[in-house]
Design goal:
It is a single chain. The protein has 5 helices and 3 strands; from the N terminus they run H-E-E-E-H-H-H-H. The protein is globular and about 50 Å long. It has 169 residues and is mostly helical. Strand 2 and strand 3 form a beta hairpin. The chain has a 3-stranded antiparallel sheet with strand order 1-2-3, with no helix packed on it.
Length: 169
């Protein structure tokens, strides 16, 4: 019988960790209040209920003052994004719903949708993650998605003319 140690954020899966692209470093200090960040079960966030097969979050330990946290990629200790306070979480949720509505309406893949959104926001595709966005980036994404939903053509980054946009600034 093989003695396989249980996977935890302190003993993550090497295979799962290798699959994560564009990984952010683990947070140690809260960007909102300066408090220390620790790893907790997500039941702390969800009033005693545990959700998901990987129920871990990075959380600001200044709980009486700050309500910032972020989940982890499954079976890793890699954050899904940056610590988010309630305002940022609501902004991310709202714009992500618009994004999925766009994917459905435009009948494009998730990857292609992210590529188009990144082009409309004038950011690199590797930086186009809702979990990385602050409120301003969410507002910019919402504006871009509304334009895309209205039929404004996103710039195809693979086009030989894509670089002209930068020359016209």
């Amino acid at each position: 019988m093989t003695n396989v140690e249980e996977k935890t954020p302190w003993n993550p899966s090497k295979k799962a960790t290798a699959r994560v692209k564009d990984a952010l470093p683990a947070p140690t200090k809260c960007p909102h209040c300066g408090g220390q960040v620790g790893i907790k079960k997500n039941s702390v966030v969800y009033n005693g209920r545990t959700y998901g097969e990987w129920p871990w979050v990075y959380m600001c330990l200044n709980r009486g003052h700050c309500d910032s946290y972020v989940g982890m990629h499954p079976f890793t200790n890699i954050p899904l994004g940056t610590l988010a306070n309630p305002e940022i979480r609501e902004s991310r949720k709202k714009v992500k719903n618009i994004f999925y509505a766009y994917l459905d309406k435009a009948d494009v893949s998730r990857g292609k949708g992210y590529q188009q959104l990144a082009a409309m926001m004038d950011i690199d595709k590797s930086e186009c993650h809702f979990g990385w966005f602050d409120v301003d980036a969410c507002d910019k994404a919402e504006k871009a998605l509304n334009e895309m939903m209205a039929g404004k053509k996103p710039i195809n980054p693979d086009s030989p003319f894509a670089g002209l946009k930068d020359l016209m600034k």
